[in-house]
Specification:
alpha+beta; Fructose-1,6-Bisphosphatase, Chain A, domain 1; D-Maltodextrin-Binding Protein, domain 2; 8-stranded mixed beta sheet; 5-stranded mixed beta sheet; binds 2,5-anhydro-1,6-di-O-phosphono-D-mannitol; binds magnesium ion
């Protein structure tokens, strides 16, 4: 019989040297939240859970009931454990401070409780994204500036994919590891140790219906991806519209995911802190690269909690090609390393 490694065992065996156990237990908390959210999403078509909850999130988009559920589960599982000093969620404009009655911990967690929410109603894969920072001053209770750190300073990041099976993929800066939920045991089992991006990319992923809203540099780059122009890269197109699912597929098969800035939408659609940042950290850990078109996502210092960014993420040569097209055509210099 082959060896089975549970997520608990793996996290414990691989906790970073500096970790006191707080980070280890925080990752357990996230795995528990993942199981609860997964069990709810699997019943989404069976119970009266679909449809807008009647509220809107900070970006003015209508919230689905499952978004609210996932946000509340993560908040309630993590606010009283003494492991966090602050949380930031896509579903709440203000940061989530740890109530004064509870002890505070050394970490900050930023998260998108349920991303790809437009796909819930149509039974398409969705996901949770999280990033964990160390708080800047451990003497103080959490402050907004504790969350406004570049993704290069993340101590851990990951996502949960609610797809044909539920997967939890995370990194603490020592490679990327994937676990699949075994529904019979209710346990995440190690299924993809040390995930590496394939050197030969298979896919490009972009919503090309926005073509007319892009800058000339982005348009030329996407033309190139599509095989129009010199030395096309020979990629096939795949786009789900669920960032976690698109990212996961491209991580396994190689490729590039793009969500460029659009005219009238400043920095693009995706959020730097809890969407682009954690995935950029994972991508670099898997051997790839992430950029906003001019500079590494890992180097951008957020100035606000819900800041948006454009995102090009995947195989390094493809992302650097995006930077070249954008800098050449749009007249912007790539930020020096
Ligand atoms: P959300 O945070 O409201 O769910 O939006 C983010 C989602 C991503 O999962 C996905 O990559 C993107 O929006 C799809 O946007 P579009 O429908 O414009 O292509
Ligand atoms: Mg989102």
């Amino acid at each position: 019989m082959s060896t089975v490694t549970t997520i608990e065992r793996f996290i414990l065996d691989h906790q970073p040297e500096y970790a006191s156990g707080e980070l280890t237990y925080l990752l357990y908390d996230i795995a528990l939240a993942a199981k609860i959210i997964a069990s709810k999403t699997m019943r989404a078509g069976l119970v009266d859970i679909l449809g807008a909850a009647g509220a809107t999130n900070v970006q003015g988009e209508s919230q689905q009931k499952l978004d609210v559920f996932a946000h509340e589960i993560i908040r309630k599982l993590c606010d009283h454990t003494g492991r966090l000093c602050l949380m930031v969620s896509e579903e709440q404009e203000e940061p989530l401070y740890i109530p004064a009655k509870y002890a505070k911990g050394s970490y900050v967690m930023v998260f998108d409780p349920l991303d790809g929410s437009s796909n819930i109603d149509v039974n398409v894969s969705i996901g949770t994204i999280f990033g964990i920072y160390r708080c800047l001053d451990e003497e103080l209770r959490g402050r907004v500036e504790d969350a406004l750190q570049p993704a290069g300073d993340l101590v851990a990041a990951g996502y949960i994919l609610y797809g044909a099976s539920t997967m939890l993929v995370y990194s603490t800066g020592e490679g990327v590891h994937g676990f699949t939920l075994n529904p019979e045991y209710g346990e995440f089992l190690l299924s993809y140790p040390d995930m590496r991006l394939p050197e030969t990319p298979a896919y490009y992923s972009v919503n090309s219906s926005y073509y007319n809203r892009w800058s000339p540099g982005v348009q030329r780059f996407v033309n190139w991806l599509q095989g129009i122009g010199e030395a096309p890269p020979s990629l096939s197109a795949r786009y789900i519209g669920s960032l976690v699912a698109d990212f996961h597929r491209n991580l396994l098969r190689g490729g590039i995911y793009c969500y460029p800035a659009e005219s009238g939408r400043g920095g693009g659609k995706l959020r730097l802190l809890y969407e682009a940042g954690p995935l950029a950290f994972l991508m670099e850990q898997a051997g790839g690269y992430a950029s906003d078109g001019r500079q590494s996502i890992l180097k951008i210092c957020p100035t606000s909690l819900h800041q948006r960014t454009s995102l090009f993420i995947g195989n390094r040569n493809l992302v650097e090609q995006a930077e070249r097209f954008i800098c050449l055509e749009d007249g912007e210099q790539k930020t020096a390393d």
